[in-house]
């Protein structure tokens, strides 16, 4: 009987190791925050943003509209509503490259004035065109001082929230 228990313990050990978070993995701390993911927007050519990635926080419509336009396609889309900034704050990630990036928001949490946005980003197959793939998330306005973007389990960027 003891041998059977020892064998089961040894076989279960890899499961425990796999289930534990990696030591270098960043976590989204604090309490759960309700959020909405928006699509149907594209980065404008004259946004002025450069590089492989941009991490952004918007507190007003004018700033958002300087970076993003609306791209209507057939089917249901979830645009950022015109009056969203009355009660909402919008955070965004833009990945640029030779492939479309697909995102999935795992969770959004808040702790001590910091908003944590944890998501996965998966690049598609590379081609010859250049793509600008946005992730746009809205949350209720609060007294946030910074936003931490956690991409694929690692902290990608921390952005201070403008007053």
Specify the oligomeric state: single chain
Q: How many β-strand runs?
A: 11
Count the DSSP helices: 2
Mean pLDDT: 87
Low-confidence parts: 1-24
Rg over C-alpha atoms, rounded to the nearest angstrom: 20 Å
Distance N terminus to C terminus? Answer: 65 Å
* Domains (count): 1
Strand content: 35-45%
Overall geometry: globular
Q: What is the helix fraction of residues, given as a range?
A: 10-25%
Element order: H for helix, E for strand: HEEEEHEEEEEEE
Secondary-structure-derived class: alpha+beta
Largest sheet: 5 strands, mixed
Tell me the strand order in the biggest sheet.
1-7-8-10-11
Description of the structure:
The protein is built from 2 helices and 11 strands, in the order H-E-E-E-E-H-E-E-E-E-E-E-E. It has 163 residues and is an alpha+beta fold. The radius of gyration is 20 Å and the shape is globular. The longest helix is centred in the first third of the chain and has 18 residues, at 2-19. The chain has one domain. 15% of the residues lie in helices and 44% in strands. It has helices spanning 2-19, 61-67, and strands spanning 31-32, 35-38, 41-43, 53-58, 68-70, 88-97, 101-111, 114-123, 131-140, 146-151, 154-160. The protein has a 5-stranded mixed beta sheet, with no helix packed on it. The model is unreliable at 1-24 (pLDDT under 50). Strand 10 and strand 11 (154-160) form a beta hairpin.
